[in-house]
Structure formats: structure tokens, C-alpha cells
Amino acid sequence: MEAVFPTVFEPGIAPARKHVALCFTQFGPFEIRDGSWEAEREAYGRRVVATLGEFCPNLESSVEHMEVLAPPDIEARFGLLGGNIFQGEMAPDQMFSFRPIPGYGDYRTPIAGLYLCGSGTHPGGGVMAVPGRNAAKVVLRDARAARVTAPVRSRFGRKGSVRA
Asked: What is the CA radius of gyration of the chain?
């Protein structure tokens, strides 16, 4: 569970002497085995607040409003398939060279000059920018390689025959 209180640094986003808390939990199922998110949403939110309350005295009694976004809500509101903000589970079968799918873990696509970056690529989501950094390194590597090979290709062509 992660919790952030943005009003500590930006008090203007809440009324005076009030705060906003953003809580994030991972690995919530899209479908609940015995029930539905409609029935469980509020109880889940209360459990999150109670858990935080073990470390933040008086938190539970100070909550005036709560909005719980379950995976189906995230999918509907933001278009993230399965309600997963990481654009795929952070599980071994969807990480490293398997991210986003086997054969495309190097940030390149079948379309020349089109590269992938973001949560759906290695190493996955979070606010770290590493997928973008990794993709940028591949773009630069490809650009350097193209500069080196362009003079050779212009003289010999792609198949190795010398042009007049």
C-alpha cells in the first residue's frame, strides 16, 4: 500500500485545515470471486483507511469523503485494460523480454522509427521514467547505426551490388 498526502506541500488543493490523501494498493482483482466491486468497494476502502490508521492516529475518524476506484472503474474511466495502471501484471510471465509481449522487449516495433516506451515496456510501471530512458537509448543507438551504415548503403545498395 502506498499513501501520499499532497496537501502537505500544496495546501491550496483542499480547504483550510483539511487534507487530501491518495492511497494505492496493488494486485486488486478485476473480478471478485465471491461478490462484486459494487458490493465490496466501500468496505475495501474502509480496510485501507483502517490499515493506515494503525500508523496514523485519528486518521479513520477524520475521513470525510472517500472515492474507491476498483480495477473495473480504472478501466472504464481511463481505458487501462483490466484496470491495471502498469499496462500488464508485474509478474514473471509479463516482465523483462516478455514485456509487452515476447519478441518486442527491445522497444522496437515492426514499423521503422516507431518505438515503444511506458508502463507496458520493461521494467514496467511506476513513476520512474526508466522505460522511456531505455527506449531513448535504443533510439539513439539505432540513429548512430543508421548514420554509420548510410554511406555504405548509398554506395553499395542494400544487397551489396556496387552502384555506378
From this structure: 24
Give the tens place of pLDDT for each residue, 9-53: 999 999 999 999 999 998 789 999 999 999 999 999 999 999 999
Rounded distance between C-alpha atoms, residue 56 and residue 36, angstroms:
29
Cell of 24: 494505492
Among 80, 98, 66, 67, CA closest to 30: 80
List of E strands, the chain: 2-4, 22-24
End-to-end CA distance of the chain: 67
Q: How far apart are CA 156 and CA 164, in angstroms?
A: 9
Distance of CA 128 to the CA centre of its chain: 10
pLDDT tens per residue, range 48-99: 999 999 999 999 999 999 999 999 999 999 998 888 888 877 788 888 888 8
| pTM of the model as a whole | 0.68
- The answer to whether residues 70 and 41 touch, using CB atoms and an 8 Å cutoff, is yes
- Please tell me the distance from the alpha carbon of residue 121 to that of residue 83, in angstroms, as a whole number: 17
Whether cis (ω within 30° of 0) applies to the bond prior to 123 is yes
Task: Name the nearest CA neighbour of 70 among 30, 104, 14.
Answer: 30
